[in-house]
């Protein structure tokens, strides 16, 4: 429930120039990717390449030509097989009313290794890199995380040099994340967040002027309360949300000047990650991260959070929510190409065992709506959806197998119950009944 008009409370705090509190709920959450071209999102395609991706978007399993290109890299496929897989019959429907191309491409995309029985979404190193177009633009959003200005760094829209956002460089041309807030995965994840999958809240406290204070405490974390909407369907202002001191919570020192909040660079920032299924809902975990908020008015603001994220978390989030083949065919992306792009551009969290970086500099945009952020009456844990725990375990087992595989370069088997298990073995789809 609303407890008071935030405008009145905020104005009173400002005039008193004493202790103050301001809260927000996140109403939009997406990777800080820029976009420079027109798209037709009804078809999931770009009408023209953006200036950041002049070579187009992802290599993917969504048309015969791209499928032929990727399957041609598989050493044990014959020319006849490559042609048949690339151009399967589309007039025969499976039980879901989909053309035969869907299960054929889904299965073939998952087995592209040097051996017929290696599942290559769990063992991506075993497949040849089909190539992922990388962002060539110099303009990018984020933070200078390493304090250096390097040739590969971006320049922010307001001219700051040294911006580290290697995830944008690696995945900025990945089709379902591209667009001005209209990428298919951006829309899906935000729809699910606003439907109640998870909620992110922010609380600021200080002792001076809420627009200018050099000693601010910034809290960000998970709320068990669903995002509240107004009569028009938009996120409503001034509702109350609880914030949990859970594994998805951080408390940072910050400063605010003229309404711009800048946090310290923290060794760790914990908060909910982007998700569109329950099995993905977990800690985003930014290393050496920072947060910037801009208070635009009494009831809204914008935010940017950045830091180094483990590439294995990012890869798992995008591939194993269902299965890599299904995701790739449906969303027009190729996770083998995504894997190699992440490894190419990894720039943080040095691993002395592998002598490689496990982290990728990232930045995420947030839109904020004013809220009252309060502590729960008594300590509580994040709620668990028992009906989803089987899928969550399958996700965790699959991610663990992938981490072991990419760390040791020894192919791992598909875990029982995994979404990858349901695809078919050796690139042969599981037969499905025709719809009559």
Write the layout of secondary structure elements.
Elements lengths: L5 H11 L3 E12 L7 E2 L4 E2 L17 H8 L7 H8 L14 H10 L55 H6 L12 H11 L4 E8 L6 E11 L15 E4 L6 E9 L2 E4 L2 E4 L16 E10 L4 E11 H9 L4 H8 L3 H11 L2 E4 L4 E19 L14 H20 L15 E2 L2 E2 L7
Helix pairs in contact: 2-3, 4-8, 7-9
3D structure, described in words:
There is one protein chain. The protein is α+β, with helices and mostly antiparallel strands. Helix content is 23%, strand content 24%. It contains ten helices and 15 strands. The strands form three sheets. It has an eight-stranded antiparallel barrel, surrounded by four helices. Strand 4 and strand 5 form a beta hairpin. Helix 4 packs across helix 8 and helix 7 packs antiparallel against helix 9. The longest helix is centred in the C-terminal third of the chain and has 20 residues. The relative contact order is 0.19.
Keywords summarizing the entry:
436 residues; alpha+beta; eight-stranded antiparallel barrel; 15 strands; globular
Structure summarized in a few sentences:
This protein is of the alpha+beta class. Helices cover 23% and strands 24% of the residues.
* Low-pLDDT ranges: 1-15, 40-47
User: How many strands?
Assistant: 15
Rg: 23 Å
Order of helices and strands: HEEEHHHHHEEEEEEEEHHHEEHEE
Mean pLDDT: 87
Amino- and carboxy-terminal Cα gap: 52 Å
Largest beta sheet: strand ordering: 1-4-5-7-8-10-11-13
Q: What is the molecular shape?
A: globular
Proportion of residues in extended strands: 15-25%
SSE-based structural type: alpha+beta
Largest sheet: 8 strands, antiparallel, barrel
Number of domains: 1
The proportion of residues forming helix, as a percent range, comes to 10-25%
Number of helices: 10
């Amino acid at each position: 429930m609303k407890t008071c008009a935030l405008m009145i409370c905020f104005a009173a705090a400002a005039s008193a120039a004493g202790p103050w509190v301001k809260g927000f709920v996140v109403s939009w959450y997406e990777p800080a990717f820029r976009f420079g071209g027109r798209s037709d999102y009804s078809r999931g395609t770009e009408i023209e390449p953006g200036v950041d991706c002049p070579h187009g978007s992802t290599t993917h399993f969504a048309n015969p030509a791209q499928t032929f290109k990727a399957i041609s890299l598989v050493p044990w496929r014959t020319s006849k097989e490559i042609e048949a897989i690339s151009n399967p019959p589309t007039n025969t429907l499976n039980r879901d009313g989909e053309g035969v191309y869907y299960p054929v491409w889904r299965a073939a995309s998952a087995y592209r290794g040097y051996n017929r029985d290696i599942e290559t979404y769990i063992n991506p190193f075993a497949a040849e890199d089909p190539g992922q177009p990388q962002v060539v633009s110099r303009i990018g959003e984020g933070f200078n995380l390493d304090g250096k200005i390097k040739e590969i760094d971006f320049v922010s829209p307001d001219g700051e040099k040294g911006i580290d956002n290697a995830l944008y460089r690696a995945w900025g041309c990945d089709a379902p994340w591209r667009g001005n807030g209209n990428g298919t995965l951006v829309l899906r994840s935000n729809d699910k967040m606003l439907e109640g999958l998870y909620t992110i809240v922010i609380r600021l406290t200080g002792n001076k002027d809420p627009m200018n204070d050099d000693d601010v405490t910034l809290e960000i974390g998970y709320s068990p309360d669903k995002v509240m909407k107004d009569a028009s369907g938009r996120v409503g202002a001034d509702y109350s949300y609880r914030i949990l001191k859970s594994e998805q919570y951080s408390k940072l020192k910050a400063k605010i000047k003229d309404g711009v909040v800048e946090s310290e660079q923290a060794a760790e920032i914990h908060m909910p990650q982007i998700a569109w299924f329950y099995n993905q809902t977990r800690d985003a975990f930014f290393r050496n991260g920072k947060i910037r908020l801009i208070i635009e008015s009494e009831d809204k603001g914008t935010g940017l959070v950045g830091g180094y994220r483990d590439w294995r978390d990012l890869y798992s989030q995008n591939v194993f929510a269902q299965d890599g083949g299904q995701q790739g065919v449906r969303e027009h992306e190729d996770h083998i190409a995504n894997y190699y792009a992440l490894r190419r551009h990894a720039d943080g969290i040095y691993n002395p065992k592998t002598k490689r970086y496990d982290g990728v500099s990232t930045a995420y945009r947030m839109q904020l709506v004013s809220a009252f952020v309060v502590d729960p009456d008594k300590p509580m844990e994040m709620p668990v959806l028992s009906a989803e725990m089987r899928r969550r375990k399958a996700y965790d087992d699959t991610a663990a197998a992938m981490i072991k595989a990419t760390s040791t370069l020894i192919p791992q088997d598909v875990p029982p119950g995994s979404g990858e298990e349901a695809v078919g073995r050796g690139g042969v789809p599981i037969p499905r009944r025709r719809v009559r």
